Amino acid sequence: MATSERVWQASDVRTNLPAVMDAALSGVPQVIRRRTGEEVVVVSRADYDRMRPSLKDFLMQARVEDGDEDDVDKALAQVRGAGAMGFAPRSGG
User: Fold this and answer.
1) For 35-64, how does the pLDDT look when each residue is reduced to its tens digit (9 = 90+)?
2) For labeling, which of 66, 75, 77, 86 is most exposed (least CB within 10 Å)?
3) Is this model's pTM higher than 0.70 or not?
């Protein structure tokens, strides 16, 4: 994915959505900014899927003691407690 990005005002995106989507699909993140300063980033589905952590990534971040028979349950509880928003199995492999 390209490292440069384009910043749009929300009002401009309404009339330029195809250009925003084309740029995101070509690997250039598109930042959409509201007047309040809040921002969202538009990226292609392929880039989004590549950036999403897997279940293994989440479990590797959990802290459990060796030899504990409840390791997986504890790891999952820690991940859920840490706000693992949007976690879902990856499709296609």
Assistant:
1) 999 999 999 999 998 888 877 777 777 666
2) 66
3) no
